Amino acid sequence: MSDINIKRKRKRPRTTQLRQDLRKSLETAILAPKSSILHLFSISETQYTANLFEVIKNTELGNAEKYLHLSTFGYKSLNNKTRIFTICGELSSKPEDLEISFQRKLRTRVFDTIAFVDNLPLLCTKERLWRRAALFGTVVDVHLPKPRKVFQKQGMLKGSIKVEHAGYGFVQFTSPYSVKRFCRRYAGNSHLRRHQKRGRKMRKTRLSRTFLNTSKNSQEENAKNHHESNFEWSESGLESEVELAPRRKRILTFNINIREIPPANTVVQESGTSGKKLKKIRRKRSLKSGSVSLRRLFRMIQVFPLRAYKKLKKEYYRLKRQTRQVYSVELAQQKEEESD
Q1: Cα separations (Å) of 55 from 35, 61, 75?
Q2: Would you call 48 exposed, middle or buried from its count of C-beta atoms within 10 A (0-12, 13-18, 19+)?
Q3: pTM of this structure
């Protein structure tokens, strides 16, 4: 019996975390705008192909050697977890002979995987925005444009916040579905309802308001009908046979057990302690000094797809040209009137 209860040791090492990190690094390296791997691939009509070991060595991984010790089955299992690349080769072949390939369409459809982020806070950095966006999918790249040059008169004081962005940025994901999730999360902050769907909170408030308005209107109509019916009976001299029940008043009741105070020189028999244990109140973990809650920091940002951002930009410039033309015509008319 002692031999049966002994657990068998695991012979095959655990490699789930290694494979997950390898998948993310390969996806980001393939879809990056300035990729350092594309020169290793041979281009055909529909796809790129290259040796897997050469690609892993040139990726930006900390210890690339530990990723080279996986088996062929471990490399082939990555095909079940990604839709961006495929690892070609037979299971009987050596891992050094495996190849990696991906379609050319992925490099052309980059615009669908980029999100435009506006209204960034002052404490936002590239690392913090990367960590927040990583909750909605694997992030390929984050670009924060630098702010404009500040004049000497408007220079920052000592000890003030150093702003590292211009108020907006761009986040690139591996799939367009993660962009939709990111936009859906912050859809309630956007003022442009035509470009984004309404958030869940806005829908709930709308439904609650409509329900309250309908209930109030129904109560007012019932009260008016009741008043009119009573008025008709009083004019005709007839009394209603049906007596309307009065409204019930709410009575607040409190179940309080009041113990009677025993008289002096008497012994009170204390009851035994109950078996129930009191629940411990868990206190919230306080943030460390210098740490920032990313949920609070990015609660007011606005997120749009890149295509919607481009449409907004075109509309803005078109309206700007129209207003300039109108002002120029008005100024010309004023100058003609003044000259006359």
Answers
A1: 11, 11, 13
A2: buried
A3: 0.63
CATH class entry, domain 111-148+162-199:
alpha beta
Is residue 87 within 8 Å of 99, Cβ to Cβ?
A: yes
pLDDT for the residue numbered 240: 41
Per-residue confidence (pLDDT) for residue 193, from 0 to 100:
53
CA distance 168 to 117: 6
Tell me the helices (H) and strands (E) count for the chain, helix number first: 10, 8
From residue 44, how far is each of 101, 102, 105 by CA, in Å?
11, 11, 12
Where does the chain have alpha helices with state H? 2-5, 16-31, 52-58, 72-76, 105-108, 126-133, 176-185, 200-236, 294-297, 306-339
187 and 196 Cβ atoms separated by less than 8 Å: yes
CA atoms within 13 A on the CB side of 291: 7
Domain boundaries, the chain: 12-108, 111-148+162-199
Identity of the amino acid at 63: N
Residue 188: Cβ-neighbour burial (10 angstroms; 0-12, 13-18, 19+): middle
Where the chain has pLDDT below 50, the residues are 1, 151-155, 158, 194-200, 229-244, 254-256, 258, 261, 268, 270-271
97-108 in b/e form (b: 16+ CB < 10 A) is ebbbbbeeebee
Pairing of strands 139-143, 99-103: unpaired
